[in-house]
């Protein structure tokens, strides 16, 4: 009888501990989301550097505007063949792509969302405005590093191109410093390194480098001249406004 009691108590403690860890993981992921979407709006110049296995680089530039969590616009300004190309992210995980050659905006399909974001090492899913806590179920992993929380994110939807993502969170400020991505075959195939900077009351990812291990290719995104809370109007984030004014 005593053995049964011990077993029952041990199982109860294990269940409570797992529940506590589950709640903590959810709270940590929600805190990360809150930091990433804290500004009411933001605008910045974006520089993208694409580098292949031989070290050859391609440079792109764009203007990025975002209002709240779900409205995000990228409009390319360099090189010349990319000028005018734009992407628009809207609520309910909707993404539109405008390409000057076709002179119209097209809605990005579920299949296309797993593809490369305008030729970079980021996917449309990576660039989605939908929060990580909405898309993934988190779990805390054991880590000996006193400065980092390590979370395992499992997708809530089978539509995700990932089987899981491992996130490394700065324990002090709760922003991501690294993410490791595993594909549907559960193979670790790419990772992103983040450099965060504080401007005023907001932390933001000044630099993100996505490395595709299998392709030996990387994309660096660097933000400059960032402006927060200038009162961007939602009318800027419409499909009609994707087409540049002449």
Structure overview:
The protein has 246 residues and is an alpha+beta fold. The chain has one domain (2-242): Lipoprotein localisation LolA/LolB/LppX (outer membrane lipoprotein receptor (LolB), chain A). Helix content is 16%, strand content 45%. It has 2 helices and 13 strands. It has helices at 2-36, 132-135; strands at 41-51, 57-67, 71-78, 86-90, 94-99, 104-107, 136-140, 148-155, 162-170, 176-183, 188-199, 202-212, 217-228. It has a 13-stranded antiparallel sheet with strand order 6-5-4-3-2-1-13-12-11-10-9-8-7. It is globular. The termini are far apart. Mean pLDDT is 87; it is low at 3-22.
Primary descriptors:
single chain, 246 residues, alpha+beta, outer membrane lipoprotein receptor (LolB), chain A, 13-stranded antiparallel β-sheet, 2 helices, globular, disordered N terminus
SSE layout:
Blueprint: H1 2-36, E1 41-51, E2 57-67, E3 71-78, E4 86-90, E5 94-99, E6 104-107, H2 132-135, E7 136-140, E8 148-155, E9 162-170, E10 176-183, E11 188-199, E12 202-212, E13 217-228
Antiparallel strand pairs: 1-2, 1-13, 2-3, 3-4, 4-5, 5-6, 7-8, 8-9, 9-10, 10-11, 11-12, 12-13
> What is the number of independent domains?
1
Q: Topology as H/E string?
A: HEEEEEEHEEEEEEE
CATH superfamily: Lipoprotein localisation LolA/LolB/LppX
**Classification by helices and strands:** alpha+beta
| Poorly predicted sequence stretches spanning 5 or more consecutive residues | 3-22
Strand order of the largest sheet: 6-5-4-3-2-1-13-12-11-10-9-8-7
Instruction: Predict the CATH topology.
Output: outer membrane lipoprotein receptor (LolB), chain A
Overall CATH class: Mainly Beta
The helix count comes to: 2
Largest sheet: 13 strands, antiparallel
- Report the principal-axis shape: globular
CATH architecture: Clam
């Amino acid at each position: 009888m005593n053995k049964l009691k011990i077993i029952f108590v041990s199982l109860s403690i294990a269940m409570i501990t797992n529940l506590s860890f589950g709640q903590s993981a959810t709270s940590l992921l929600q805190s990360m989301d809150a930091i990433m979407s804290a500004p009411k709006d933001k605008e910045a110049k974006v520089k993208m550097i694409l580098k292949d296995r031989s070290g050859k680089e391609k440079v792109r530039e764009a203007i990025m505007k975002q209002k709240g969590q779900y409205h995000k616009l990228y409009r390319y300004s360099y090189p010349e063949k990319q000028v005018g190309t734009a992407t628009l992210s809207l609520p309910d995980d909707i993404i539109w792509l405008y390409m000057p050659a076709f002179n119209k905006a097209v809605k990005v399909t579920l299949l296309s969302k797993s593809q490369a974001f305008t030729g970079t090492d980021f996917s449309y899913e990576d660039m989605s405005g939908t929060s990580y806590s909405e898309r993934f179920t988190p779990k805390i992993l054991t880590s000996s590093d006193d400065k980092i929380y390590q979370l395992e994110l499992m997708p809530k939807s089978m539509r995700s191109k990932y089987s899981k993502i491992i996130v490394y969170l700065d324990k002090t400020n709760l922003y991501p410093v690294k993410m490791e991505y595993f594909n549907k075959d559960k193979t670790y195939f790419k990772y992103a390194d983040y450099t965060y900077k504080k401007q005023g009351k907001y932390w933001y990812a000044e630099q993100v480098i996505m490395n595709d291990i299998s392709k030996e290719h990387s994309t660096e995104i660097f933000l400059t001249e960032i402006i927060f809370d200038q009162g961007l109007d939602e009318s800027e984030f419409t499909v009609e406004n994707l087409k540049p004014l002449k």
